[in-house]
Amino acid sequence: MSQQSFLFHHEPHWLENRPGTRHTLPKDVQSWVYEPGSLTQRLRDYYGDAVSVDILLQQWNTPFLSERRLLNLPENKYSLIREVLLHANGKPLILARTIIPKKTIKAVKRNLAHLGSRPLGEVIFAYPKLERIEMDVALIEQKTWSPAAIEQAEIKQATWGRRTVYAIAHRQMLVSEFFLPGSLEIF
Predict the structure, then answer these.
(1) pLDDT per residue as tens digits for the range 109-148
(2) What are phi and psi of 65, to 5 degrees?
(3) 3-state secondary structure of 114
(4) If one looks up domain 15-184 in CATH, what number appears?
(5) Disulfide check for 6: which of 56, 127, 161, 167 has CB 3.0–4.6 Å away?
(6) What is the pTM assigned to this prediction?
(7) Is 90 left (phi over 0), alpha (psi -120 to 50) or beta?
(8) Nearest Cα to 6, choosing from 113, 156, 148?
(9) In this predicted model, what pLDDT tens digit does every residue of 57-105 receive, in sequence order?
(10) Host H or E run for residue 43
């Protein structure tokens, strides 16, 4: 049976990033939520080649309702859903969920459909015309995570995240990233 998510029991509740939102977030979280560059690169700058990606889920399925709305996708259209854990030396750092519509994959010559264990950030930040369209933030409560995600990422508390709509060649994708305590130790 296919599933919409390995990470979540149900869709997280997201808040639009508005003026002043930054000041409501803890300082260590602000540093990551508002990071303008690649999170993967930031992790690699700190941990070097120890940063790796575990693929938790990668399949064609229907995104969550709010994800479909953000990307203007019809309910019956599948997108590539990819959920991963970035870690260094076994220390969980970031969970990520990416929604890539078929038209986006076609526009970028399918590079995004065959990432394997390469981090998405390495690929999309190499595109010269990568655009950030909008961003939301969320504090994900323990009960929102699936038991498998809690175990895999050693989640012991509410976790901050951001989701960003990116566009490459005017085609959009949605990247949600969740900052585990291991990442918040890095400034």
Answers:
(1) 757 777 877 778 877 787 778 899 999 999 999 999 999 9
(2) -55, -50
(3) helix
(4) 3.40.1410.10
(5) 56
(6) 0.93
(7) left
(8) 148
(9) 999 999 999 999 999 999 888 999 999 999 999 999 999 999 999 998 8
(10) helix 39-47
- The encoded tokens of residue 136 equal 């939301």
Q: Where are the domains of the chain?
A: 15-184
Beta bridge partners of 145: 8
Q: Tokens in use for 152?
A: 């895999």
d(CA 109, CA 119): 17
Look-up: residue for tokens 């990247």? 175
C-alpha dihedral, 45 to 177 to 138 to 26, nearest 10°: -10
Contact predicate 123/38, CB 8 Å: no
Which pair of structure tokens corresponds to residue 37? 């560059």
Tokens coding 16: 């639009």
DSSP letter at 117 equals: T
